[in-house]
Amino acid sequence: MKYVISKNVDSFFTDVSDVFGFVVRFFKEVFKPPFEFNEMIKQCYNVGVRSVALITVTGFITGLVFTKQSRPSLAEFGATSWLPSLVGIAVIKSLAPLVTALICAGKVGSGIGAELGSMKVTEQIDAMDVSGVNAFKFLVVTRIVATSICIPLLMMYAAFVSLMGSYIDIHSHENITLLTFFQNAFQKITFLDFASTLFRSVIYGFTISLVGCFKGYNTTQGTEGVGKAANMAVVVSMFLIFIEEMAIIQMVNWIR
Amino acid sequence: MQKEKGHIDYNTPVIIIKDLYKSFGDNDVLKGIDLTVYKGENVVVLGRSGTGKSVLIKMISGLLKPDSGTVNVLGYDVPSLNEKKLRELRMKLGFSFQNSALYDSMTVRENLEFPLVKNSHHLAKKDLNNSIERVLDAVGLLQSINQMPSELSGGQRKRIGIARTLIMQPQIMLYDEPTAGLDPITSTEINNLIVAVQEKFHTSSIIITHDLTCAKATGDRVAMMLDGQFVKVGSFDSIFDTKDERINSFYEYNFIQ
């Protein structure tokens, strides 16, 4: 077979074109009836409710550990009263969206990649298509929409739990009420900060599910391919999350 | 036992394939396939694994596009169909997959309900239940209605796969290796089911297989495929009445197996 440039370069551009086609198809299908509401609610449950326990533990530990690690440095300057503000900025602007996205990339992204991958290799996706059901809309659109909705909600929950973890540590050292803690924590948070965090979470949710769906939907090579799809769904989405984090924060700084 | 052919309408072709070519990279899979299937006819496509038999029925159902040639199914030119027309055609086709392709996360009932509910939105619950019971009864598995696919045997999965296609009342059935991986008794049951479906539901079928017993039991006509081409098309007996070494070795190998 002849290649335009070389095998690897050709394959890279083919992949880029396939991803682009996949995204275009998603936006074409998402606004077109019939809407698969029941399946979307089921996916919201899978992505959102089933991730709550994991997010609770990781979010709580993140807030608690960050506070414990930051205390000695601030104590040197006698500035431990700034801890709530510092934690608030760190958690809301960076830790909560990133931790939520990375946890979900591992849990949700790999799950979607493996599920769709195994459906692909066992011809269940073909079976849906030949029975007159739009498999892309039923499987891909519902998962991407559900994840894009649930990750921002999980992020807000993770931020709350992180702040609670932080409060427990601060409360054990200083006599501060929960209300005062939250007032201080949100003192330096602007609307733009909150909006950018929310926007980033939507983008992360979209990315995680898009990569998982793309890898799963295009799985080849049998069960080995399913493992690869799940693995690549996690690796690629984590990589993209960091790139997006950098790009969006840069954009927000320009706006600011 | 040779099948009777009284039910075939030779004036009404339902599938017309002409000069069909398909390759994957350097691998030329189909090299000029011509085939006509008539209303009510069961045509068996016989050949070794990897000769492109499954690719052929995937092109008939629009899952793959040919490189060149025409595929006309029930008057639809399949490769040129838009999404809406393709869905319209697919509702007239039943595709029984090699590994049944039952939806793992759904019970047998939900597997059968799924295509019906998605394609007929205003179906009453009573009609839905009647349809499910009718096809489950036809494949003899009414008792498995609430089981999960993982609880079924290979033969039962095949039969549920066939039931799931029958529920849409297709005009054409496409069977991909219906007896692969089954013991001889279960294979015979599946062969009988294929013939029963043809007689009861008046379907035309293409049956992809490498199993000679299946070919003989289910086919009104057999098309022998070797290296991406049909080398002979005719009755089961006429196919093997030949001096072609490749066909004879296929026959002998099957019975030694």
Automatic annotation (TrEMBL), chain A:
Keywords: Membrane, Transmembrane, Transmembrane helix. InterPro entries: Permease_MalE (IPR030802). GO terms for molecular function: phospholipid transporter activity. GO terms for cellular component: ATP-binding cassette (ABC) transporter complex. The chain crosses the membrane at residues 47-66, 86-105, 144-168, 198-217, 229-252. Coiled coil: none annotated. It holds the Pfam family MlaE. This is Phospholipid/cholesterol/gamma-HCH transport system permease protein.
From TrEMBL, chain B:
The keyword Cell division does not apply. Residues 15-252 form the ABC transporter domain. One of its GO terms (molecular function) is ATP hydrolysis activity. SMART domains: AAA (SM00382). It comes from the Bacteria. The keyword ATP-binding applies. Pfam families: ABC_tran (PF00005). This is Phospholipid/cholesterol/gamma-HCH transport system ATP-binding protein.
